[in-house]
Design brief:
2-enoyl-CoA Hydratase, Chain A, domain 1
Length: 248
């Protein structure tokens, strides 16, 4: 068995990149991979030096889904809902989370991607939910997050048919935020991450929190919640305004 890590973390000036590292298995999500992923997510939750988290896959695919072979072989996660709780923890990160997708983004991989704030996709990307093919029902949040991202009607289309949604259709759906040529994906992801990292982490974190709190509210109630609970100016506001003024 290989001693290579199943998830690799690399950091560059406030951007932490987590790379799924099972390219020969199209980065299928084994329980052991989730254990390594959770360790990094827990670290990031308390790491104020990180402003943006990028998730990607080594090789030609982001993630082909849950590792059914590992499950059949008896491999189990530490607790019953460990995978779902790991995805919840990613969604709860204060940092902006970008998922960079090339190739497959299927089922468990799609659920992992849906925990992110933004999805940037290569023109090779394919998105699919194959639970129905294997007589399985989602337990990691698919029935909540996919409709929230693309609407209930389109979510039913994907979930009930199991069909593959290619990159351009994913962009039209709002599943992907941007689509770029495959050769440009890494650079485009890095540029998006840098744009976000240059913003105030105070703003990003509180915007995420406010959007989470108001997700189930109507527009009026959500606006009122924001007005009454938004923290206003952050500790770096004066410095940023002064810097802008100096630059003219």
């Amino acid at each position: 068995m290989s001693d290579a890590p199943l998830v690799i973390r690399s950091d560059d000036d406030g951007v932490a990149t987590l790379s799924l590292n099972r390219p020969d298995a199209l980065n299928a999500l084994s329980p052991a991979l989730f254990v390594e992923l959770r360790s990094f997510v827990d670290q990031l939750a308390t790491d104020d030096s990180v402003r943006v988290v990028v998730e990607r896959g080594e090789g030609r695919s982001f993630c082909a889904g849950n590792d059914l072979k590992a499950i059949a072989a008896g491999e189990r996660a530490p607790t019953v809902h460990f995978q779902a709780e790991t995805i919840d923890a990613i969604e709860a990160l204060a940092q902006a989370v970008i998922v960079s997708v090339r190739g497959h983004c299927f089922t468990g991989g799609l659920e992992l991607a849906l925990s992110s704030d933004l999805i940037i996709a290569s023109d090779t990307a394919m998105f699919s939910d194959t639970h129905g093919r294997f007589a399985m029902v989602p337990t990691w949040g698919m029935t909540t997050r996919l409709p929230a991202r693309i609407g209930r009607s389109r979510a039913r289309d994907m979930m009930f048919t199991g069909r593959r949604v290619l990159a351009e259709e994913a962009l039209q759906f709002g599943l992907a935020n941007r689509v770029v040529a495959d050769a440009e994906l890494d650079q485009a992801t890095a540029e998006m991450a840098r744009q976000i990292a240059d913003q105030s982490p105070w703003t990003i974190g509180h915007e995420k929190a406010l959007m989470a709190e108001t997700a189930g509210m109507g527009p009026g109630a959500g606006a009122l919640w924001e007005r009454e609970n938004g923290p206003g100016r952050g500790p770096d506001s004066a410095e940023r305004v002064a810097d802008f003024s100096r630059r003219g």
